[in-house]
Design a protein that fits this description.
- The protein is α/β, with parallel strands linked by helices and 278 residues long.
- It has one domain: 2-enoyl-CoA Hydratase, Chain A, domain 1 (Alpha-Beta Complex), CATH 3.90.226.10.
- Helix content is 45%, strand content 19%.
- It has 10 helices and 11 strands.
- Helix 2 links the parallel strand 1 and strand 2 (57-66).
- Helix 2 packs parallel to helix 3.
- The radius of gyration is 23 Å and the shape is globular.
Length: 278
């Protein structure tokens, strides 16, 4: 009977490995990587929910290697991390870079690990515009806009921005920035005035961030996994699982490349607010 069960488990492990799944028995710590520019939250939230529903997963380590990205996606992932934190242990582990929107997400975790040299912080908001008014005038091109309201073409690249438009956009930036500060104050249990003093977009090393209370401990991913296991009261060395690797067809790769190009152009040419380290 024991031999039969062993053979079954062995076969399942082989099949799981072939299909890109991690087949691990016992209580587990799941590692969820978040890397690159954050432009979408759907896939990350879907995987967070899967780990949350898996009774064998006792803790989740969110592994961050990102300069940040869109405000909306960053906030959505942060909120999902906070929801799960009430049910399971969630630890954030920062790699080479976990700044701006990446740090925003980390604030939703129970505990934050960073390497001494991790680039983090950058608590701020960014809105970028391109103005080509002088260029198109030199080549004899004129732009015309028909609009329903005075602010409808705010950020137009073919004319100068009015003082009223600047004031309006600054008020939006200030409001979103305040939301970021609130997340840090709540997540890190820090006085608001202390957070405001460093919430000017500056980047910090992991060591500096620890001194300021922005992270809890210095350590690598393995340290974060070990601590997550202890916090979840897992006996012995935690068993680690990761999301299955997504299989891409040539069409999928072309779609991803097109999406990447479009996202980059949107950042450059349209009104978009980012938690993004520069």
């Amino acid at each position: 009977m024991v031999l039969v069960l062993g053979a079954v488990f062995g076969l399942l492990a082989v099949v799981s490995k072939m299909q890109g799944f991690s087949f691990v028995r016992g209580e587990k710590v799941a590692i969820l990587p978040i890397s690159g520019l954050i432009t979408d939250s759907e896939g990350t939230i879907e995987q967070l929910k899967k780990f949350a529903k898996d009774d064998s997963v006792k803790a989740i380590v969110v592994r961050l290697n990102t300069p940040g990205g869109g405000v909306g996606p960053s906030q959505e992932i942060y909120e999902e991390v906070r929801k799960i934190r009430g049910k399971k242990v969630v630890v954030a582990s920062m790699g080479a870079l976990a700044a701006s929107g990446g740090y925003y997400i980390a604030c939703g975790a129970d505990k934050i690990f960073a390497n001494p040299g991790t680039i983090t912080g950058s608590i701020g908001v960014l809105m970028q515009f391109v103005n080509v008014k002088d260029l198109i005038e030199k080549i004899g091109v004129k732009g015309f806009v028909i609009k329903s309201g005075s602010f409808k073409d705010t950020g137009s690249p073919v004319r100068e921005m009015s003082p009223e438009e600047r004031k309006l956009l600054q008020s939006v930036i200030d409001n979103v920035h305040s939301q970021f500060v609130n997340a840090v104050v709540e997540g890190r249990k820090l006085p608001r005035e202390d957070v405001l003093a460093i919430a000017d977009g500056r980047i910090l090393s992991g060591e500096q961030a620890k001194e300021l209370g922005l992270v809890d401990a210095l350590g690598n991913q393995e340290d974060a996994v070990a601590e997550a296991g202890k916090m979840a009261k897992i006996e012995g060395e935690p068993r680690v699982v990761t999301p299955p690797k997504k299989k891409f067809s040539i069409l999928d790769l072309l779609r991803e490349e097109a999406k990447s190009i479009i996202d980059e152009k949107l950042i450059q040419t349209r009104i978009r607010i980012d938690y993004l380290a520069q």
